[in-house]
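Contributing new records

If you add data, match the layout below exactly. Sequence lines come first and carry their own label; structure lines follow with theirs. Keep one chain per record. Anything else will be rejected by the validation script.
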Amino acid sequence: MQLATLVPIAFSPKTDRSEFTAMIEMPLGTGIAESKRVGREVASAIAGVRHVEHVFMSIGAGAVTRPNEINFYIRTIHKSQRDRNFELIMDDVRALIQRLAPAAKSTRMAEIPWVGAGSGSFLNDIAVVIQGPDLQTLERISHDLLETMKSNPTFVDIGTSYDVAKPEIHVNIDRERASDLGISVRKVAATIRAAVGGTDVTTYENQGSRYDVRIRLAEENRDSLAKLDLIQVANNSGELIDLANLASFSVRKGPVQIDRRNRAKMILLYANSPPNTAVGVSMEKMERILEELDLPPGYFAGFEGRSESAQESIEAITFAFILALVALYMILASQFNSFGQPAVIMTTAPLSFVGAFAALVVFSGELSLFAQIGLVALMGLVMKNGILLVDYANQARMEGADAREAMIRAGQLRLRPVLMTAFSTIFGTIPVAFSTSDGAEFRNPLGMIVIGGMLSSTMLTLLVVPVVYTFYEDLMGWIRSLLERGKSKPAQTVAGS
């Protein structure tokens, strides 16, 4: 159990496929020209980083085109030709961006997704969502949490989905004044929308294509608040009234977008783990921070994206693990026609966990989804050793041998097949555990778990199963003697009378 606590949990380990992405988010309002300048400067510097082979830059890519977002695709030489982990190269690029783009609102490094582009929460190691009814309260909570994350070295590439840097023009209508002048609020809103935002008045067709024609005020007539005051609205009598007589304009900062989840407002915070730090370590630190977070009633904070998937995978694998134990017990009980001997055989399962978790600790592995699947598969692999011993011991018992002698004979005759099957499995799994191909880190933990589990279970099974078997047979013999003694007493009483 102590070894298991030393293994960090993750949905998937970081994989070195000799490519990754970087993103720079400039302050809102940054023009395309400034983004190009910063992007070219950074791209040129990244190309000079050791082991970097290719750099591709794009601005405003994605479903929502934003000229203040600069994206880089970075390809390195193959990992077999370099002496540095890709995480260290990512860290060099991160430091370079922070030096060359000090005005950047946030930066982000990410692996290339295995399938599709994924959402923002799946592109980061850590993603936390905060939900609640009031946006200002959410902003305050997220700001405090963001500052806590920035002060902790366990997190890098820290950012948030909430941005209030977007300037907005607010119209404050004097409703009583508007009513006295015979103008409805709806008419005021419709007039401002048509004058500033425009309205479609007709369509234009050219060479089989149809275009909407929108009309609005010329830019020189709507580029200041003073000019907006001159917009006129018709009242019920048809008179034109200046907006300055019934409304005032003010400029404020508002959110770029308001995200929702299950109809509740939410703010997403994201971060990555630093180089040579397991994702599970960052997740555990984030869990402790969330536990100390004092949330008002009606507010919720929890993991999202890969962090949430890691927790869900643990629950799913735990259920599969229990189901597998029940299925194995039922099969063994029917095979050995006993309710106790399957329990003797199944003592090999916890023996395999010793080596499995020890292997992950020694090789700095993570308990990822593949590793968890390996744990479930390991149960079926290791129980065959116990089956071989108990099956032959039962045959020896039928020939008249006692439990101790039967298990000694089983150990002598079954040692060779036990070792043959164990080492064939171990040698067959070595390429999975120690492969260095592209993305091999994704399946390495599975091989480590199988090798470590098979080694420990094979050695310990030959020691533990004989002891448990003889103890079980002695216990059953003692119970049978008690039952026989209880049956003989009533018979003696009847004979004496």
